[in-house]
Amino acid sequence: MWGAIAGDVIGSYFEQVPTKSTQFYLFREESTFTDDTVLTVAVADWLLHDTDLVSTLQRYVRRYPDAGYGHTFLTWAQFRQRMPYQSWGNGSAMRVSPVAYAAETLADCLYLAKKSAEVTHNHQQGIYGAQATAACVFLARTGKSKSEMRDYVENKFQYDLQRTLEEIRPHYVFDVSCQGSVPESIIAFLESTDFESAIRNAISLGGDADTMACIAGAIAEPFYGGVPEEMMNQVLPLLDDRIRETVNEFHNRFIG
């Protein structure tokens, strides 16, 4: 989960100032956590305490009202609506990574990912985005290779992961849909050589940088054995005590 949060914090600056390069300073004065972190922690809280997910997500929005939520999600949360709204946006994918640690099997992971998504993102593409991301995290943490991860996601979700970043980057534009950002985020991980390069790859596409780096970072963390210490030393001071405590509690319960 720290990988998702680190990706979000690093990508936060580049959502407003996009880049098509992998060469950039990772942290800026403007670097901050956004809705990606808030809602990832909300999902972790839900899994920890077996609460009602709708109420938990909405409680976190009230706690962090200025985190940069999408308009439709924010309206849903502020008016305390109970019904989903057929979203295919990548919000379902950016918040899903904790389920891959709470799940004991891949089937359980897919079930929990669907459950975490469909309270808002009940469009099939919104569910697929969450499931594909969670599956990659689960497969990474259970020792599967990149080729095994690629084959599984392509066969299960019909995502085209044969493209390269070099092919995608010149024409890629800001896209908040699952189908237009989750495959590219996975490719950013697949082409990486370490945790940092996964983050740099995702941001270098010039798209929804914080969310794409959040997704790539979530997958890269278990695959590469964690987030580099020097990076965490920059991320942790930007989080409040409540977020740090919830993530630590989740790690102690499900990761060890």
Percent of residues in beta strands?
Answer: under 5%
> In percent, how helical is the residue content?
55-70%
Kindly report how far apart the N and C termini lie: 13 Å
Strand-pairing-aware structural class: mainly alpha
> Average pLDDT, to the nearest integer?
98
Please identify the top-level CATH class.
Mainly Alpha
What is the CATH architecture term? Orthogonal Bundle
The CATH topology annotation reads as: ADP-ribosylglycohydrolase fold
- Sheet having the most strands: none
User: What is the H level of CATH, i.e. the homologous superfamily?
Assistant: ADP-ribosylation/Crystallin J1
Number of helices: 15
Count of separate structural domains: 1
**Number of β-strand runs:** 0
Shape: globular
Please tell me how large the radius of gyration is. Answer: 16 Å
Oligomer: single chain
Helix-strand topology string:
HHHHHHHHHHHHHHH
- Pick out the low-confidence regions: none
